[in-house]
Design a protein that fits this description.
disordered N terminus; four-stranded antiparallel beta sheet; 2 domains
Length: about 475
Amino acid sequence: MKSKLLISCLLVVMRLTGVTSAFGQAEIWPLEKCILYAIENNIQVKQMELSSEYNSNILFQSKLGVLPNLNAGASHSWSFGRALDETTYEFTKDQTVMSDNLYISSSVTLFNGLQTLNTIKLNQYNLMASLEDVDKIKNDISLSIALAYLQILLNIELLEVTNSQLEITNLQIERTRQLVEAGSLPHGSLLEIQAQAAAEELQQVNFQNQLDISYLTLTQLLELDSVGNFQIEIPDLPLPEEKFLLESVNEIYSAAEKILPQVKGADYQLKSSEIGLDIARGARSPRLSLSGSYGTRYSNILKKYALVPGETSDPLPIGTVEGTGETVYTFPQPLVVSENYPFGNQFTDNATYGVQFNLTIPIFNGWQTNTTISNAKISVLNSKYNLEYTRNMLYKEIQQAYADAVASLKKYRASEKAVSSMEESFRYTEQKFNVGMVTSVDYNTAKNQLMSTQSDLLQSKYEYIFKTKVLEFYRGNPLSLK
């Protein structure tokens, strides 16, 4: 019996102090480190951050949408048999035609119902909303870490109480054995007190299991591979001040509404849907765009003609003189064919370019624009409901946390009085038990009542601490046990 108690106490001391084990030095984690580590390594946070990066890329692309586009192209082709030479627009026969085409073009939208600018605004709000979503999941993780951390502290204290009570019971077993051997107490009293010790040993095992499970829960939240030498810091944890309970729920909600990401994110989503409605309405506007192009071509069969200097051909009639009817002639110079028409010269001579304005006026497109506008209005209304729902849920969460804090404080105050009274009653019962004035049943009953009130005191204490930390968190204060 004593050896079991010694081993149990040693395990608890090792957990609480983080002493060096055969496998290495235990690492002590304060709450702040746990929260920071969980945020940095949580997969959901990483996924939300990737979503924000995605929205950032979409915003960047929409900003580039106001710039003109620029495209260029080139082609090289061979034509055989009867083929059209696009440089001369003549058909060739039994001749291979090799040609090149080059072009460059650009266009820019001058007006499209402000859809481009509104798209930029919409993507900005989407990015801001996604960033708030990241902060929201970070807050959720922080609260989960804080709750798991405090649960470990509670289980440690519950285990300490059980160990202390088991130690007292083991001392009573020795006293009872001596009284039984002396004939002052019946043997049944020893059996009853031994049964009480066995029950407390079982309770000790249960609390140790709860402590191990609470450690496992925290390490899983931290995404650690195993519990290993992981140990949390045991802070000096006094009961928080009651200043937050002096404020009303509305005052706390008023502060939380301005800073918490879930409300800000829902508000950004509403603004995004309102901009989406403006974009849908912009589809009714005329669209004006400006485009320009430049192109040229080359053909291997294109010939270049030149005038023969100093020579003229037969006269050609070009008209008559008004009034006299006399025919007017011209004497054109003869042309000579140049067999060499180099690529560079063709590139310049065959150039074509132009500028074009395009105006598109939507008249009827199968009611698609009206349907899009109608759906955008529904999206705006849904976003308003979502914002209202988010605010209502936040108010209820604060209201519940406030009520739980008040209730746990009242329970703590009542448990304090109960523990004080039960401790005094147990000391009195213990003194009478030591002199044989009460039975072991009465002694065990008093002891169990004391343990129950001590457990209630600890649970109400940590519940009150957590709820007050939640209320502080809603006010914008970081989670900390210091």
